[in-house]
């Protein structure tokens, strides 16, 4: 606040008004400059506030985009690691399964000769369509028939060079990826049920090999 003029003594109203007008006219230009300066300062302050606000918004957006990129990269790395772990587990499972087949094939008894009475003659149709006919001792466990089917490729290869002595894979729990089925009437010979080949199949029979799908295994485990 500034003093424009001082009016002392007795004055008439018209003189008082005239003196005020004169003082205002004399100080109008400085007042206008002050008002203009204040308006400019206010405009500059408002502009800075707008710029600061825009900068903060832009900075927040940059931070959010950076966060999203970090999360996307972390998710991508997790997916790659999980995929690599799954692949390694699948490869290890396949290696253990092949090692188990070689180990199990070593202990499979030879096919009974003609001197073995009551031998059970089994015709097995493999998933490939190939039919294999083999005899089993009547007291052989049904698991031996499962093992023969599982190790058939190893046994075939062994006819040329023999079976290399192989230890049982450590920490590996083998599960047969198929079931043996008699087509007519349909009968499933579950390996878990046990029993001898003679008890389960009789004097002989035709057997189909049915692969077990992954979703079936998951249902059984649940």
TrEMBL record:
Region (Disordered): 21-115
InterPro entries documented for this protein: Ubiquitin-like_domsf (IPR029071), UBX_dom (IPR001012), UBX_domain-protein (IPR050730)
Entries under SUPFAM superfamilies matching the protein: Ubiquitin-like (SSF54236)
CC annotations in GO: endoplasmic reticulum
Basic and acidic residues compositional bias, start-end: 21-38, 46-101
A Pfam family that the UniProt record links to this protein: UBX
UBX domain boundaries: 115-189
UniProt GO molecular function: ubiquitin binding
GO biological process, one term: ERAD pathway
PANTHER family xrefs: FAS-ASSOCIATED FACTOR 2, FAS-ASSOCIATED PROTEIN
Protein name: UBX domain protein
């Amino acid at each position: 606040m500034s003093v424009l003029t001082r009016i002392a003594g007795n004055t008439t109203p018209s003189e008082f008004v005239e003196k005020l007008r004169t003082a205002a006219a004399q100080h109008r230009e400085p007042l206008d400059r002050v008002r203009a300066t204040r308006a400019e300062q206010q405009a500059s302050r408002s502009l800075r506030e707008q710029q600061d606000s825009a900068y903060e918004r832009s900075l927040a957006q940059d931070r959010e985009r950076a966060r999203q990129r970090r999360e996307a990269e972390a998710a991508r790395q997790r997916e790659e690691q999980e995929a690599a772990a799954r692949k390694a587990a699948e490869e290890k499972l396949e290696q253990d399964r092949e090692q188990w087949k070689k180990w199990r094939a070593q202990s499979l008894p030879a096919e009974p000769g003609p001197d073995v009475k009551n031998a059970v003659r089994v015709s097995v149709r493999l998933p490939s369509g190939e039919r294999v006919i083999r005899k089993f001792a009547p007291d052989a466990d049904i698991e031996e028939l499962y093992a023969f089917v599982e190790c058939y490729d190893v046994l075939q290869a062994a006819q040329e060079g023999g079976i290399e002595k192989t230890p049982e894979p450590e920490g590996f729990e083998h599960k047969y990826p198929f079931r043996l089925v008699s087509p007519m009437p349909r009968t499933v010979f579950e390996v878990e049920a046990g029993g001898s080949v003679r008890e389960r199949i009789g004097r002989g029979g035709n057997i189909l090999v049915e692969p077990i799908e992954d979703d079936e295994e998951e249902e059984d485990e649940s």
